[in-house]
């Protein structure tokens, strides 16, 4: 009799420990009923139900605990939306500190690797070569499995190994700022621009990629690399791709302020998804975090710290891993499509070429306020079409849209572009007297198209119009031109200009918009008493009004000095 009682006591202890109180009460009843089979089966069923209930209760408690832990991760770090600018005296030592990736720049992806990959790809493609860019893309297949710091080192080595310093300078000056500006976080930039503190950026990206942008566009006082402080250079001309050590962000911040005898930063902004950022901003008197929801709004173009007028590079999209894979998949198809589009433009009549171009994906919108009256009468000059300049194909699309032959005058046109052009082209010599005589002679033979900006501009701005054309004739017709692309830009300042038409026509669905305005009234020409400068400025203003662009006083020389470091003169 003692043995069964011991079994009952043991069963009671087990049930009490494993099950809820209700199970314990059922076990006590079992003690009085004995070990009949029926009651045993009922007990097994009850035990299963209560085990399930107990498991669910544990899961709910665990979820509540995780939620409480998530809510209490940054009890002292509110969202940047809670920041209030205070009008108080600012000491010269008061400093704002933050990172660029995930803070100043929007969080492009919840995966940190995908967030900074596009900027490495821009350097590899625009500053290196297609082969380097392909290798960088292939590395995505294994980088996801590596630690964060190792990922950065591998990306840096592939991107920078053997890259010329001057090529990196060109990319940081003329390519990256455009993509950085388009990715600026509106909430963080509002705080950045409103505060009068000195601003120091501690960046996880290679310093050479972001320093020029931060200093020239955002007026940062200092830029410190943390993960990759410095990329080694061989002979001051070529990067080795190797890095000279690694620092922890909060340690780099502490050392920076200690070594410069500065008091700790007044304001710090970090990323809510970065554990290092939590430690990094904890040394600040006031700290905020940037959540993924705070990164939804981009900075409007009109609020850019500097107008984005000039930029270079072939890629017209942000090269995320998936977008880059799509681009390389399209590349061979796009090349043969570009060759096909060139051939139909050169070999076929205008109306047939327009039809086949539309079938191949080229979209042309054409609107005219003038009627074609045929070739000029004998002894009378032709019509001078004055266009703003978007790509080298402006005269080509105008010719095919009007359905009549035109002669185009250009500067520095490559032999290849002259060969594939379906219209007559004449190169000018940059000599005012000789160029004027040449254009006057061409006008006496037929209609002429000229782009007085002298160079292309991708953004919604018009450069200063050269007034020479206004002195040639009173038969002036302004033409508003706009071109839109989705994959490749058809212009370049530092690359091979002979490839410009091919890159434009390699786009899946390039768009060309042309609107021929009314002929200029005689009273608005030089024959009506206006100066050539007044005529040029009037036409520039009319084209800007129609296109919704903004007029500038910038010239071809300004563009090439900004993008290529030269005056844009090809010998």
From TrEMBL:
Chief place of localization: membrane
GO molecular-function term, one example from the UniProt record: glycerol-3-phosphate 2-O-acyltransferase activity
Domain of life: Eukaryota
Domain Phospholipid/glycerol acyltransferase span(s) in chain numbering: 383-484
Keyword terms: Acyltransferase, Lipid biosynthesis, Lipid metabolism, Membrane, Phospholipid biosynthesis, Phospholipid metabolism, Signal, Transferase, Transmembrane, Transmembrane helix
Keyword set includes Cell inner membrane: no
Keyword Chaperone: no
Signal sequence, start to end: 1-20
InterPro entries reported for this sequence: HAD_RAM2/GPAT1-8 (IPR056462), Plipid/glycerol_acylTrfase (IPR002123)
Subcellular location: Membrane
Recorded topology in the membrane: Multi-pass membrane protein
Pfam families registered for this protein in UniProt: Acyltransferase (PF01553), HAD_RAM2_N (PF23270)
Record GO biological process: phospholipid biosynthetic process
CDD domains: LPLAT
GO annotation, cellular component aspect: membrane
Name of this chain's protein: Phospholipid/glycerol acyltransferase domain-containing protein
Originating organism: Brassica campestris
